[in-house]
Amino acid sequence: MDKILVTGGLGFIGSHTVVELQNEGFEVVVIDDLSNSSIDVLSGITSITGKSPVFEILDLKDKQKVQGFFKNHQDIKGVIHFAASKAVGESVQNPLKYYENNLNTLVYVLQELSVLPASNFIFSSSCTVYGQADVMPITENAPVKSAESPYGNTKQIGEEIIQDTCKVVPNLKAISLRYFNPIGAHPTAKIGELPIGVPQNLVPFITQTAAGLRDCLSVFGDDYPTADGTCIRDYIHVVDLAKAHVVALQRLLSDKNEANYETFNVGTGVGSSVLEVIQSFERVSRLALNYKIAPRREGDVIQAYANTAKANNVLGWKAQSTLDDAMKSAWLWEKQIRNL
Ligand SMILES: NC(=O)c1ccc[n+]([C@@H]2O[C@H](COP(=O)([O-])OP(=O)(O)OC[C@H]3O[C@@H](n4cnc5c(N)ncnc54)[C@H](O)[C@@H]3O)[C@@H](O)[C@H]2O)c1
Asked: Is the CB of 34 under 6 A from ligand 1?
């Protein structure tokens, strides 16, 4: 049973990944400072897997605490690093919070991990590194474009920090997973996404509107050069995404990596428009969603969906769930947390 550290492991994607790691027999240690999650997630995880992960409340911006943690856990075989702040709008208002939290935590963890005998590292990156890519679907070789926000910039700089470190620390093996748009929840509805305040993302906004928390969903722009005029994204079920982390970690643990730094797109390869997501929700929930067309929103790219050939053929992972599966799980989760 290899011991794996999951930072940010009580967050949306982290909690689902802890479940999949435990299902595969890993011993999981979770660090989270609860800045964007709840301690209740721990019991959600435990009730799904029957196993409680070791948990430490720790702010990874505290370098001494990070050093102390690794001193006590020299037998860690790998780290999956989710911990970061992720609100794009807030990052524009408060860039230094984002540079401090997303980059200092990464550096401190890498400093400790890279001196351990087993230094395997998985990083949460994002398709935002591609900006508005010129060619669809987007391959890993598409150019990294100038970031639209400080948040997006932390993902680009984060990847560079890891790549530069891998060049000089041969012992360190790392994979950046570039997520497309994670949605949905665990099918048991025991864990899911818990946005604080007004959701920034489409799917929680849809489910909160249907649950009566929001009056109306605004669809930002229906005059884009797409089939129905609304923006297109690649929505990936969070459980599929969680499984991609396990596969990536196993690749490093079994020395199957081709270089000590690799990147993979994690998406379905299918682009869905905002209106198609709404239709999917209406289909699975049998409800009519209250929505209106609003003006375009600044900074939105027209379309982004993944070429998944490298993830499918080299990593050996493929998304299994459909958009309807994901919307169904998101709605089940929303109903569960609102007691509907
Ligand atoms: N959700 C998305 O759409 C998306 C897309 C691409 C990439 N990502 C990246 O994936 C990762 C996970 O995203 P998520 O949606 O699960 O976010 P999340 O906010 O639900 O999870 C992040 C977790 O990290 C914790 N955390 C933050 N700063 C910390 C610190 N200094 N010390 C310890 N814990 C800290 C938070 O409390 C939270 O539980 C992030 O790095 C995010 O940038 C997310």
From this structure: yes
Structural tokens at position 335: 């109903």
Ligand 1 pocket check for 129: Cβ under 6 Å: no
Is pLDDT of 243 > 90? yes
- Which pair of structure tokens corresponds to residue 284? 């699975």
Name which of 199, 206, 200 is nearest 331 in CA terms: 206
Q: Which of 98, 130, 151, 235 is catalytic?
A: 151
- At residue 118 the predicted structure's pLDDT band, cuts being 50, 70 and 90, is confident
- Of the candidates 193, 192, 205, the residue with the CA atom closest to the CA atom of residue 297: 205
Per-residue CA distances from 172 to 77, 111, 144, 155, 197 (Å):
11, 11, 23, 19, 38
Distance CA 138, CA 320 (A): 19
Which residues are 235's β-sheet partners? 181
35 lines ligand 1 (CB under 6 A): yes
Taking CA 308 as the corner, what is the angle to CA 126 and CA 224, rounded to the nearest 5 degrees? 65
Give the Cα separation of 265 and 289 in Å (integer). Answer: 31
